[in-house]
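Re: beginner question about structure tokens

> Can someone show what the tokenized structure looks like for a real chain? I only ever see the sequence side.

Sure, here's an example I had lying around. Input first:
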Amino acid sequence: MTPDPQLLSVATALPPHRFEQDETLAVARAVFAHRLRDFERLAPVFANTGIRTRHAVCPIDWYLQPHGWGERAAVFERTALALLEEAAGKALSAAGLRPQEVDAIVCATTTGIATPSLEALLLDRMGFRPDTVRLPIFGLGCAGGALGLARAAMMARAMPGRTVLFLLVELCTLSHRPEEATPTNVVASALFADGAAAALLRAPTGVDAPAGPRVVDSAEHTWPGTRRIMGWRIEAEGFGVVFSQDIPKLIRERLAPVVDHFLTGRGMTRADLAGVVCHTGGAKVLEAITEVMDPATAGMEEAWAVLHDCGNMSAASVLFVLDRRLRGGATGPHLMMALGPGFTAALTLLDL
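And the corresponding structure tokens:
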């Protein structure tokens, strides 16, 4: 049996524009209040998200004007590549590796489309080999961090001794629609942000694997009848966000059996976990997951800290939490968790 893939390094990258939550509330009020009668009733969501600051790929004035699909796609490709190059460079440096030593790249995103895909565009730009195996992934949404890392680990396990680079970028702010004065758009304006991350994995070829963090197992569960809980509307202006207010309720009522079934298959219970690595879906989501995962709640403080400092960066958020957990010296079995369109629970078991 091939040993579990090791995490050689994890790195993150944030775009240059940093917004205080009070600033975004003032902008949202200027954009929406005169067209949305219930704006002031919705405005407290900006304070209740648990977010203090967020980062974005464009200056705040860009978000005051409508933009078409073509313009958004051009901004996505240009800025996503810059962030991925930064994150990948950091991960390679931390692992003591050169781009030429990478054998495969898995690249996940749901907030933009590029063809050739982003990792293909990075090959020449960063000096990866022409024979690098590529796997672009689109559509996993907020679950893309946990599931994308799991897919990269599957690839590493299938090619022991070779190095797999997992890349992840989400530019949620590019879906902002100032012309759409709806409650859903106001909530999205209060919550979403941009970020990128990278991780390097390799499955050892020998029986005696060196010490270090590793990816042990993974699973996903897509609940029937939940396809409209979260996703995109595809429209002339670009992506339009879809998410239900029932997500925290669904977590409280339906997540625990999925988690317990996964852990039971590994001969574990929640009490055996040293902690969790949780996607920063928002204050209500984090509160619901804390209740469900009790007593395994170590690591939730890092999730709250990432939410506070960076907002909800969709799939990228969970890699930011993992990075902080590793830097804080966490060890032992951890369950990486995220929820995304489908509606799907993503579970990845790590041994830090």
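Each token stands for a local structural state, so reading them left to right follows the chain. The longest helix spans residues 69-95.
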